[in-house]
Write a structure and sequence with these properties.
By secondary structure, this protein is α+β, with helices and mostly antiparallel strands. The strands form 3 sheets. A 6-stranded mixed barrel has the order 3-4-9-6-8-7. Strands 14-16-21-18-20-19 form a 6-stranded mixed β-barrel. It has a 4-stranded antiparallel beta sheet with strand order 13-22-12-23. Strand 1 and strand 2 form a beta hairpin. Helix 15 (408-445) packs across helix 23 and helix 21 packs parallel to helix 24 (770-796).
């Protein structure tokens, strides 16, 4: 009964103070909304179970060496699969692209080749039909395919009779044997279908060093991840002894599939969650400060209630109930803001952030919001409630109104402490945001090794069933020639892999300058790109020495290649690489011959993988001599390249309507995409830091305004005794800056400790960068000075006679 009375009384008081209520609710809603939005992402990525039965038994398998982690080779996969004491089942996959034709417009689909145990590992039953069987992967078996639900609904109208129907994929008629739920999104969230993968005896005998299989496994009953990891290491040690040339320095490891999928995003998400936690603490401090001010104004009311028999505990409870009401209203508004924030995060997030396709406000997120709301009520309501109850002075409260009722000086001291804490927390956030801004600026200043302005790119993949090497060579040559004739196009080139596409193609060397290189862990390797004449010009890549590839580098002509500066430094340190020669190994093969030739030119280094990663040793071979059916095309225009998209599609369709044009992007878009994750982190932390600084400024303004109001009589006496308005203003600003300096000093100590958590997110900047810390400190001091300026002007304008009469 008492509680319901407290609730009704509290609601009436909040309704009678709309300005106070609105300010408090909005402040706390911002903190709760930001926390809920970020936690929804953390929940989806780090906490929510993977959408497979017994997901804790799923592990990712990798091989390791001094060069880092790598995917598996087919023979090693088979040896690991044989460990039935450790694994119930294991499967290998690799991504592939397949052109769907004969079902409307040609479309390139993201697919995966998977070994027979793949769906057994995931243990998810199909919606329709079945998964793979052992016979599906055998040589000469009828081609089959398993579709994902999204593709089934989008292109086949969710037809339940799809099983048994043949679809054309890369020119091959494959029979659909099943449809898997949309929750099965491995090895990539974009995967739309799976085809069976098997290995011949020859492949198992010769591809021990060919690492291209992503492997997952389901643990045997009773086996832990640590036990599987230890067992794999033992098997890898045995393989290293049996195959020293290919496995001599290699080991293996098993880790939970979630950890493997999340990768390096876990620290970043935890940093962001901590950052919004700081914002919430600052918001709570501001609301606590508002409540303290309001309690001072309610001194007479509280004194009367005490005189009528209300104990200190009842008074504290009443004030705490009002805090809970404020927090509840803020939580409701915060949920609405969080819903908007989740949509905004979905729009802004980079595509390579895993497991965020199903970010939503589910039960776990709602429980988190409820907990945060209640905790906020305690944090910002407990101190004002207890202080108000402890400082009630019955006689002075009834006699003097607000001046002595709840101890205004004590409230002012508490508010000052809260403001110092706000400033310290805000400085930590500003320092972190500043570090990410400087890091991102360094990334943007990195020379990628090519000129992205005015370059349009797209990719085509020719189906193997329709295009042999001769036809692939002719298609690529015809396409680049047609595109070269387009108005406004200054250069056209094609490459097996475009820069910043996320793909790599490394091959070890067999010989250098005729000197044989033994295949082994220490054998040098290079990245390989197969390019057409004009590629360097189209990409804006500099030729340092020698000549470019040209039309004369055709089939039957002497084999030649270009090497980048990193390859020249690796293979011929301190010497001129032009005129030297090398031969590549047969790890992935180029027909029946070993690729290689004479180095005729040296190309500038290009950051092919990521802008933040140094250029790798790379060689460029003529596509005409070593043709493949998958290429990325680059067109350099003398203006905006976007209008060329339609013409490029038309010319590709004119050559073969069944070959779709995909990944149509300008190089500037690719470049922006390569730093999208860093931009995302920077923007988030910058928004939180700005919000923290603004809340801290509001807190300083509130403390100074409250202090001026409480010191009106003192200020009036000072003015009456000859103090000038400027002196009074400086007094107030000085008091505000004293609080700010105290907060900055404490914040610097916190920043030096906590910004180390950002080390993995920074590029070219140290976590303790003095310039960034100094800039954040000066910015916050300037904000504090501005926040104190308005109360200072009000104090300078105090009329001494009016002040003395009022008091």
């Amino acid at each position: 009964m008492d509680l319901s009375q407290d609730l009704r009384y509290g609601l009436r008081h909040l309704v009678r103070s709309p300005a106070f209520t609105l300010a408090a609710v909005v402040t706390i809603a911002l903190g709760i909304g930001a926390n809920t939005a970020i936690f929804s992402v953390v929940n989806a990525v780090l906490l929510r179970p993977l959408p497979y039965p017994a997901p804790d038994r799923l592990v990712s398998i990798r091989e390791t060496s001094d060069r880092g982690e790598m995917v598996l080779s087919p023979p090693n996969l088979e040896d690991f699969r044989a460990q039935r004491a450790l694994f119930e089942s294991m499967a290998g996959t690799y991504n592939t692209y397949l052109a769907l034709t004969g079902e409307g417009d040609a479309e390139q689909l993201v697919g995966a080749a998977a070994t027979e145990d793949f769906f057994r590992v995931l243990a998810t039953p199909p919606l329709v039909g079945r998964g793979f069987r052992a016979e599906d992967a055998r040589e000469g078996a009828p081609p089959v395919v398993v579709l994902r639900e999204d593709l089934w609904r989008r292109r086949f109208g969710a037809d339940p009779a799809i099983v048994g129907r043949a679809v054309q994929l890369d020119g091959v008629a494959r029979t659909v044997v099943g449809v898997m739920p949309a929750s099965v999104d491995y090895p990539d969230v974009a995967t739309e279908l799976w085809i069976p993968l098997g290995f011949s005896e020859e492949e198992l005998a010769t591809q021990r060093g060919a690492h291209y299989l992503d492997a997952i496994a389901r643990l045997a009953p009773g086996v832990t991840v640590d036990q599987a990891d230890a067992g794999l290491r033992a098997v890898a040690a045995r393989l290293a002894a049996e195959h020293p040339r290919t496995n001599g320095d290699e080991s293996a490891t098993a880790r939970s599939l979630r950890d493997a999928l999340v990768g390096d995003i876990r620290p970043a998400l935890l940093v962001m969650l901590g950052a919004v936690g700081f914002v919430l603490l600052i918001a709570c401090a501001n609301v606590a400060s508002l409540l303290l001010t309001r309690a001072v104004g309610r001194g007479r009311e509280l004194a009367i209630r005490t005189a009528l028999g209300a104990g200190r505990g009842r008074i504290a409870r009443q004030l705490l109930v009002e805090s809970v009401l404020l927090a509840a209203l803020g939580g409701i508004l915060g949920l609405l803001l969080a819903a908007w924030g989740v949509d905004a995060l979905g729009t802004l997030r980079p595509e390579d952030v895993p497991l965020v396709g199903d970010v939503r406000l589910d039960r776990t997120v709602l429980l988190f919001t409820l907990g945060v709301t209640l905790l906020s009520a305690v944090v910002f309501g407990l101190v004002p409630a207890v202080q108000a109850a402890r400082r009630i002075e019955l006689g002075s409260g009834l006699r003097e109104g607000t001046a002595g009722a709840v101890g205004a000086r004590g409230a002012q001291r508490t508010r000052s402490v809260l403001v110092v804490a706000e400033i310290a927390l805000a400085l930590v956030l500003l320092a972190g945001a500043g570090l990410l801004v400087r890091s991102f600026d360094r990334l943007l200043r990195v020379d990628p090794g090519f000129d992205p302005a005015g370059v349009l790119t797209f990719s085509v993949s020719l189906p193997d069933a329709k295009y042999d090497t001769t036809r692939a060579r002719a298609y690529v040559a015809a396409l680049t020639e047609r595109l070269q004739e387009l108005p406004g196009v200054t250069a056209v080139g094609a490459a097996s892999i475009l820069p910043l596409s996320g793909s790599s193609y490394g091959i070890s060397l067999t010989s250098v300058d005729g000197r044989a290189i033994e295949d082994g862990p220490d054998a040098p390797s290079v990245q390989v790109r197969l390019v057409t004449p004009g590629y360097l010009h189209a990409m804006g890549m500099p030729l340092r020495r020698g000549r470019d590839l040209g039309p004369s580098d055709r089939p039957g002509a002497p084999h030649v290649l270009l090497a980048n500066e990193a390859a020249a430094r690796l293979l011929w340190p301190g010497e001129d690489a032009v005129g030297r020669s090398l031969v590549l190994g047969t790890r992935f093969g180029f027909g029946g011959d070993r690729a290689g030739g004479e180095v005729v030119g040296i190309v500038g280094d290009v950051r092919e993988m990521r802008v933040s990663r140094e250029a790798l040793p790379t060689v460029y071979l003529p596509h005409a001599q070593w043709p493949v059916g998958f290429v990325g095309v680059a067109l350099r225009a003398d203006g905006d390249p976007e209008p060329l998209v339609a013409a490029a599609r038309e010319h590709a369709a004119a050559l073969d309507a069944d070959v779709p044009v995909v990944e149509v992007l300008t190089m500037e878009q690719r470049l922006a995409g390569s730093v999208a994750r860093q931009r995302f982190y920077m923007l988030l932390l910058a928004v939180f830091a700005v919000a923290a600084a603004a809340l801290a400024a509001i807190g300083i303004y509130g403390v100074m305004a409250f202090g001026v109001a409480q010191r009106t009589r003192e200020i009036g006496i000072r003015v009456a005794l000859g103090a000038r308005p400027g002196d009074v203003a400086r007094l107030v600003v000085r008091a505000g800056l004293l609080l700010a300096v105290t907060g900055v000093v404490l914040g610097l100590a916190g920043a030096l400790a906590l910004t180390r958590l950002l080390e993995g997110l920074l590029y070219g900047v140290e976590p303790s960068d003095p310039a960034t810390l100094a800039a954040a400190s000066l910015l916050l001091l300037a904000v504090a000075a501005l926040a104190a300026l308005l109360p200072a002007r009000r104090a300078a304008g105090v009329d001494p006679m009016q002040a003395l009469r009022t008091e």
